[in-house]
Amino acid sequence: MSGSKKYSISLPEDLAEGVRSQVGPGGFSAYVAEALEQKVAMDKLRELVADFEDDNDALTRAEVEAARELLRHDRRQAGGAAA
């Protein structure tokens, strides 16, 4: 990730306090940044699937599960937690 910049955002108080209680005040920004990275990745994945399905048959349940397993494997290889 490139450099950081400070932003002001509004969050539901119960959500923000729940996160803060889990990660502490020093981990809040990193937690939010990771959540946003995951959301952006999922949005890109949805676009890829939609583009694929525009030109091909819809993905089968087996193909989706195989892709999920590959993603889990990649996360474990990168040192992330299993999904």
Protein model, in words:
With 83 residues, this protein is an all-alpha fold. It has one domain. It contains three helices and no strands. The longest helix is centred in the middle third of the chain and has 28 residues. The radius of gyration is 17 Å and the shape is elongated.
Approximate strand percentage? under 5%
Quickly give the structural class.
mainly alpha
Using the CA coordinates, give the radius of gyration.
17 Å
Spatial gap, N to C terminus? 22 Å
Helical element count? 3
- Name the poorly predicted regions: none
Helix content: 55-70%
User: Mind describing the biggest β-sheet?
Assistant: none
The count of strands amounts to 0
Any idea what the shape is? elongated
Number of domains: 1
Order of helices and strands: HHH
Topology:
Blueprint: H1 13-23, H2 28-55, H3 61-77
List keywords for this structure.
0% strand, mainly alpha, 3 helices, elongated, 83 residues
Summarize the structure.
The chain has 83 residues and is an all-alpha fold. Helix content is 67%, strand content 0%. The protein starts with 12 loop residues before the first helix and ends in a 6-residue tail after the last helix.
